[in-house]
Amino acid sequence: MAQITLSNLRHSYRPDPADDDDYALKKIDLTWDDGGAYALLGPSGCGKSTLLNIISGLLVPSEGKILFDDRDVTALPPAKRNIAQVFQFPVIYDTMTVYDNLAFPLRNRGRDEDIVKRRVTAIAEMLEVTGMLSTRASNLSPDNKQKISMGRGLVREDVNVVMFDEPLTVIDPHLKWKLRSKLKELHQRVRATMIYVTHDQTEALTFADQVVVMQDGEIVQIGTPVDLFERPAHTFVGHFIGSPGMNVLPCEVKGGAAFFGGEQVALEGPAGGAADGKAEVGIRPEFVSVSTTGGGIAAHVRKVADIGRHKVVEAIAHDSRIHAILEGDAPNAGDAVMLDFKRSQTRLYKDGWLASRPEGDVR
Questions:
Q1: SS3 letters for 292-311?
Q2: Which of 36, 45, 317, 343 could be cross-linked to 266 through a Cys-Cys bond (beta carbons 3.0 to 4.6 Å apart)?
Q3: Is 332 in a helix, a strand, or coil?
Q4: Which domains are delineated in the chain?
Q5: Where do the ABC transporter domain residues begin and end (predicted)?
Q6: Would you list the DSSP string of 60-98?
């Protein structure tokens, strides 16, 4: 396996890019440690596939370098990079048995049959497909076909990285959780460097130890799933992660305090230098309390959605929509309510970027 470093990386599909808008990938500096589980997360068009193709060698970047363990591979073709890749659609041979499909990457490299048997047996056991080894691949269900496709990527012991490109797109929703948990288990057992590319936050957050969130060709935050949820570095991360996403409300900053609709909102800590530029308050729905009495921000309930585990309340205050997630009883549509924000979870953002600090943080 390998440590992967992206240094001063930029890429444009135009022959003569003039400014940042001409670049599909803006400046990226990033290191993935050997043996880690990582995810590239972002909406369609954010640059995930471009970055994946650059790492795999299908694209040569306009600028910058790709290093595998400090070895410059920027100009090397895919075959020289020793990468295994799993795609959206299963890449297997329907006329072969499961055993022969798993053995193919090893046999194609001239491995001894004793090694082939040992590796195929081990991977089949991990994937829980030992009983299918003699079955023709054409007779498998879609989720088992994708399992075999994953196994083909994992069967080699000499790969630098295993990359997954939206591998669960064609899998039925009720089976996705099985494959997600299986993939996480596989990583813990084989400790291969794995990069998982997806637009699905659930897939990214349940698989990866570190998630790279991208927007418009830029990395807006790198962190653990907990980091991304609890302390989004950018309002885009707050919007994109969570269901519903973070409430982002317009505000004014005066004297170091934030005011929403003329009402002061207590922040997690100092507002820093956020007096200039576009200022917004961010608070996740999980940390918004709703009551019919007491203090807070006056609002009226627009609708309530009961999704079983909890209820999602949508309220309107100062012409802004605010979501709250509640356990147990909830108000009814049309009710007048008071909204209270948990102070330690109420962030200030300046031009989209986190500008407040926790109480006691003197940086």
A1: CCCCCEEEEEEEEEECCCCE
A2: 343
A3: coil
A4: 4-230 (3.40.50.300), 243-354 (2.40.50.140)
A5: 4-241
A6: --SEEEEEETTEE-TT--GGGT-EEEE-SS----TTSBH
0.70 exceeded by the pTM? yes
CA atoms within 13 A on the CB side of 255: 4
How many Cβ atoms sit within 10 Å of the Cβ of residue 320? 17
Alpha helices, DSSP H only, in the chain? Answer: 48-56, 98-107, 113-127, 142-154, 173-190, 201-207, 225-230, 235-240
42-45: long-range contacts, CB 8 A cutoff, minimum separation 24:
42/199, 42/213, 42/214, 42/215, 42/240, 43/199, 43/215, 43/240, 44/199
Q: 315 and 301 in contact (C-beta within 8 Å)?
A: yes
* Phi and psi at residue 125, to the nearest 5°: -65, -45
Q: Which amino acid is it at 1? A: M
Amino acid at 179: L
